[in-house]
Amino acid sequence: MSSLQNRRVLVTGGTKGVGREVVARMHAEGARVLTTARSLSGELPPDVIFVSSDLTTAAGCATVAEAVHERLGGVDVIVHVAGGSSAPAGGFSVLDDVEWERALNFNLMPAVRLDRALAPGMVERGQGVIIHVTSIQGRLPLPASTTAYAAAKAALSNYSKSLSKEISPKGVRVLRVSPGWIETEAATAFVNELAAKAGHSYEEAKAGVMQALGGIPLGRPAQPREVADLIAFLAISEGLTGQEFIIDGGTIPVA
Ligand SMILES: NC(=O)c1ccc[n+]([C@@H]2O[C@H](COP(=O)([O-])OP(=O)(O)OC[C@H]3O[C@@H](n4cnc5c(N)ncnc54)[C@H](OP(=O)(O)O)[C@@H]3O)[C@@H](O)[C@H]2O)c1
User: Fold this and answer.
1) Ligand 1 within 6 A of 15 CB?
2) Rounded to whole angstroms, what are the CA distances from 222 to 24, 73, 191, 225?
3) Is 83 in the pocket of ligand 1 (CB under 6 A)?
4) 202 catalytic residue (yes or no)
5) Strands across the sheet containing 8-12
6) What is the pLDDT of residue 102?
7) What pTM value is reported for the model?
């Protein structure tokens, strides 16, 4: 197993939720970390470099790739965390082309564009790790508003596998982490909203969400720190490439 000490690490979406925990964990392990989001909300650990970007655009991805070259002199580990869905309710028929493009531009294209810019340097050095954060929805889509998101995550997963086949023989490992429900601040706010609407407690509303997901055998969502722990482990596990690691408390009902 290698170490993260002095590794140059890019984390996308590192200001909130899972990304913020990944940044904290990488920093604590001694890595040199650059992260990006549209704006800096809250504080980052000391010496972590923040670059403002909109990753849904080619220009935003180019800004980040340039910053990685200029400020870190290259990259050893890329963790693509940014992603999500803000699609309207109403089912597949309200997901117009704009919504589909939004889903793909947020959940697939940033990884494609950043890898295309940065992975050649890894290949040249014959080493590096790329971790794509997808979702169990890539395999087990929920109905309705997240249809485009789920399809985009499935595409990300397929792309990740393909990339792993191409560049693992050249020394660059490519892995996927697929979370189920994670209790991020945004998820907590969402549950609080449901609770307020229904006149329920937070725990009652949370149980309702878990039921809607078909149940979580572990009885709770994952914590952002637990997802970051898995990512940090994969970053230094030299024997692993081309695989998907599901962290969903057992939500997916098959092995
Ligand atoms: N939360 C869950 O239950 C869950 C479940 C399965 C999979 N996932 C996946 O796990 C990953 C992390 O999810 P999360 O819930 O932790 O996310 P989150 O709390 O919503 O944080 C998203 C991060 O991405 C940044 N971001 C958003 N839009 C951006 C843009 N256009 N350009 C650049 N950065 C942008 C955000 O900062 P700004 O808003 O300031 O830009 C923030 O730092 C995502 O890929 C998500 O799909 C999450």
Assistant:
1) yes
2) 17, 34, 15, 8
3) yes
4) no
5) 49-52, 32-37, 8-12, 77-80, 128-133, 172-179, 244-247
6) 97
7) 0.97
